Every structure is written in structure tokens, then in C-alpha cells.
Amino acid sequence: MQQRFLFFLILLIIPMRILLGQSETESINEKTTIEEGKRINFIAIPLVFYLPETRFGFGAASNVSLHWKNQDRNERPTQFTIGGAYTLNKQLLSYISYQIYTPGEKYWLRGELGYYDYVYPFFGLGQERAEVNGNFFSRYPRLKLDALQQIQRNVFIGISYRFDAYDITDSEGENGLFNGVDLSDGLTSGLGVAAVIDTRDVINYPSNGMLFDFVFQSNNNLIGATFDYSLIQLSYSKYLTVGSNVLALNFNSTNILGSAPIYELALFGGGKRSRGYIEGEYRANNAFALQAEYRIRFKNKLNRFGVVFFASAGQVFDDLDEISTQYTRPAIGTGIRYLISREQNLNLRADAGLGINGLQFYVTFAEAF
């Protein structure tokens, strides 16, 4: 716990010290000022962190938001988030995630390009959690792409594809933690459909509207996959204005049909779903969570700052008859926000979430949902 607390403090203090040293209207890393008609905004933040699995890590993250030359400024902006880090355990994380809108929002491309050499904690499978976790180590390139077309205002449908080439390099765990667990290398190659309904007023910090996001992908050897299974992901978020604050609600679920490898099972926890649990602390064929978050942004001289309070509950299961309040995993938490770009309405967030197994910390760009 002390090590995870140090991880939180380092990640929180370094970006804040950089940002707070600037004027009220501009960060040192914003390469453009907030002017009428400006179409490109760029932000970069250095990161230093520590985790027991990684030891010290060093890197940087940046966000680029833009409107194309012939694009209306009231349309959704194209965004790129770029990050990279290297740890003293010789691990590498590098990625580019993107949301590309053509003028008129006729087409929308979203996804990720990345390469990861990382360690993943493992607490066993199913609804029970091992007292002591193990780890498995993996290297893989990643490609994710959804190519969507707007069929009517705020409604998009299209194809969805994901590719990962997993090389499981090692594993470690006591008391036979990995007994019976298949840690074979494998290719994920999933092709399917995606559908999105997006009526949010602002992408990065919505105060009203909703976001419905559905993805179905099938993995099979006809398109190069090592394993034969299907993936269904569903997320629904609703945003309500409460005075000058925002109440955000979310339901998300992941369902696996077929025989997926351990690294492709539905995960519970993480910085976007069920904060308060390590991502993968529970894993099974199915997972779902309900979340609520109350967001407050301060006014006057503190108008770059805000706080949030959140709660969630959910669980994992393999069969429907396993769903039970006994295995519900609740969490509560709070966090602080710093508005790093007025142009993008983009926050730096630092959250602390408390689940039944302890406290977890998160620092990243943008809201959890």
C-alpha cells in the first residue's frame, strides 16, 4: 500500500507543479493560446511513477485536439492521445489513441496503435480472489480500428476490428496459482460491427446528453485468430446538469462467447470501470458495472479546479446463475480535477477509489466515462 501511495503522489505532484506555475489562462505546454478561430491545441505532460510490478517508470503523455480547415467549430474535434513510458524492469508502453472526424462528421475513425511489453497481475479466475497475486508477462503490438459512418444526426454504425499478437514471456505465482491456466501465445483478430449514439454537448466534459456504445467482434481462424470466440462490449452513459454541477451515470458490460485466452477474458476494475479495484483483479467470461459520479467545478479564481465523488458496483460471472449480491463488488471514491485546456475542456484527473480489497489510485487525462 505504501508503494501504491507513492505512485499516486509522484504522478499527482509533478504535473500539478508544472501546471500551477503558469498563468490562469495558459499552461506552459500548450503550444497555442486560446484564441477565437484557433483550430489546433496541444498539451504534453511528463510522468514519473512507481509500482511494485514495474519499479520506477518514466515517460510522457500528450493530447492533440483539432478541427480541420473546412470543418465547423461546433462539430466534434479530432483528437490524438500519445503516450510512452519505460520502467526499470525493462518494460515498455507506447500507444497512440485517436478519434478522427471528417468535416460534417460524415465519417468517424477511432482506435489505437500501440506496442506493449508489460506485466499483468493475476488473482485467479472467477468470483473469488486469491490472497496473493501472481503476474504474467506479455509483449504485443496492438491495432484497434472502428470505421463508422453517420447515418443520421448523432447516430453512427460501421465495422470494428482489433488485432493483438501476444507473446507470453513469463509467469510467476505461488501455491499453484496458474495451475490449469492456459498461458499460450496467440493472435487476437476480431472483426465485427460497432454502433454509437452520441448526443453529448461536449466530448471531454459533458454536462448533458448521452453516449451509447456497442461493439461486437468475432475471432476465428478465417481472419487469423488463434482462438475461437466472440466479444460483446456495451457502454451507456447519461449526463445530467444539477445546478452548476454534473451527475454522470454509466453502465458497462463485457461478454465473452466461446473459448477466449486468459488475457482476453472480461476484466473487472481499472481507471475507467470500477475504480477501487486493480484491472483484472477479477476476471471471467462476463463482467458488468454500474457507476455514478458527481462532478463539481469551482468558480472564480479556482475555476480550473474541481472535485468529484463516485460510487460503483458490479461483478464477474461465467454463467447467469452465478449472479448474486454475495459477489457484488462495491467501491466508493473521490478525486480532484485540474483543467489543463480550456479550449478542449480537458481535465487532468487524480482519483482514489476504495474497494473491498483496499485503496487504488489513478492519474490520467479526461474523465472515466
Please supply descriptive tags for the structure shown above.
369 residues; 1 helix; Porin; two-stranded antiparallel sheet; single chain; globular
How would you describe what is shown here?
The chain has 369 residues and is mostly beta strands. The chain has one domain (2-365): Porin. The chain has one helix and 18 strands. It has one helix at residues 2-20, and strands spanning 40-51, 55-66, 78-87, 92-101, 107-122, 134-152, 155-172, 186-198, 209-219, 229-242, 245-258, 266-268, 282-284, 286-297, 305-317, 329-341, 346-355, 358-365. The strands form two sheets. The protein has a 16-stranded antiparallel β-sheet with strand order 1-2-3-4-5-6-7-8-9-10-11-14-15-16-17-18. A two-stranded antiparallel sheet has the order 12-13. A hairpin with a 2-residue loop joins strand 6 (134-152) and strand 7 (155-172).
Q: Please state the overall shape, judged from the principal axes of the Cα atoms.
A: globular
Write down the secondary-structure element order.
Answer: HEEEEEEEEEEEEEEEEEE
Detail the poorly predicted runs.
Answer: 1-36
| Arrangement of strands in the largest sheet | 1-2-3-4-5-6-7-8-9-10-11-14-15-16-17-18
What about the largest sheet? 16 strands, antiparallel
CATH topology: Porin
CATH level-two architecture: Beta Barrel
What distance lies between the first and last C-alpha atoms, to the nearest angstrom? 26 Å
Please report the total strand number as a whole number: 18
Full CATH superfamily name: membrane protein fhac: a member of the omp85/tpsb transporter family
Fraction of residues in helices?
Answer: under 10%
CATH class: Mainly Beta
Helix vs. strand class: mainly beta
Number of domains: 1
> How many helices?
1
Strand content: over 45%
Could you report the average pLDDT, rounded to the nearest whole number?
87
Radius of gyration, Cα only, in angstroms?
21 Å
